[in-house]
Write a structure and sequence with these properties.
By secondary structure, the protein is of the alpha+beta class. It has helices spanning 8-29, 42-54, 59-62, 66-86, 95-119; strands at residues 133-138, 143-146, 148-157, 180-188, 198-200, 215-222, 225-234, 245-254.
Length: 259
């Protein structure tokens, strides 16, 4: 989940919902809204939900505020429910709204950074993919090959392949350029299920940051059987892209003649 990426819509709705709840609590604290029972919350909560749904219209802006709006929303909602359910006074300066005000401030101050990392990470933490795609062009799907060393050809469009294992500071600003390839192999059982995958330790040669590759050939050693190969394009330092840029392919390795 990141800015204008996966999760930004619900994050924006949470932000607007939290602001609306805080406004209801403030109205109750100033005596503008009378809340003494649960039924008194029906109209304010319905209005807050409707306003929260409209937050998606400004998701590119509102989603940036989710790290501080989430504690505000939780504290405001709990305070309103406690006040309505118990009959405690919600008008300022009663203990309940004053305590809620302090708790919201502390929560927004202390939780803002960890929530930002967890819910709204920067591009350095969670690089976003755009139009990159990775394809296994050889062996083709369901192709039969000879067991042993199999040359696997991988192509990348909308991005490129670098040497991998480089510091993020040395990479292009576009995380899909000069990316790193990782792969796993899993044997396919007779019933079509796959065994636990194992990582393929391969090295990409001839690709650099200044002259990245679009196509690479890497050797993979397999025993006789049916195999599923999974290839991922990651940022050049190995950090996974979001959403993943991934492809799968199956091939059958036949025993060497005479064995």
């Amino acid at each position: 989940m990141a800015h204008a990426g996966p999760g930004s819509a619900w994050q924006a709705m949470v932000v607007v919902f939290g602001i609306a709840l805080a406004a209801v609590l403030l109205g109750a604290g100033l005596g503008w809204i009378r809340i003494t029972a649960i039924r008194d919350l029906l109209a304010p909560l319905a209005a807050a939900v409707i306003l929260g749904g409209l937050g998606v219209l400004g998701q590119s802006v509102f989603a940036d505020w989710v790290s501080w709006a989430l504690p505000l929303a939780v504290v405001s909602l709990v305070t309103l429910l406690v006040g309505a359910g118990t009959g405690l006074d919600l008008r300022l300066p009663a203990p309940l709204p004053m305590g809620a005000l302090a708790l919201a401030g502390v929560g927004m101050w202390t939780l803002s950074t960890p929530l930002a990392v967890a819910l709204h990470p920067t591009a350095e933490i969670l690089p976003l993919s755009d139009d990159a795609a990775v394809t296994i062009s050889s062996p083709a799907d369901d192709e039969e090959v000879t067991a042993g060393v199999v040359e696997v050809t991988v192509e990348v469009t909308g991005g490129s392949i670098g040497p991998g294992g480089l510091p993020a500071s040395t990479l292009p600003t576009d995380p899909e350029e000069a990316g790193a390839l990782t792969a796993t192999l899993a044997r396919v059982r007779d019933d079509g299920s796959t065994e636990p995958p194992r990582e393929v330790g391969w090295e990409v040669a001839g690709c650099s940051v200044s002259a990245p590759c679009r196509t690479v050939e890497v050797p993979v050693t397999v025993e006789p059987g049916t195999w599923e190969l999974t290839v991922d394009l990651n940022r050049g330092d190995g950090t996974a892209l979001a959403p993943p840029v991934r492809t799968h392919g199956r091939f059958r390795a036949l025993p060497v003649e005479g064995n």
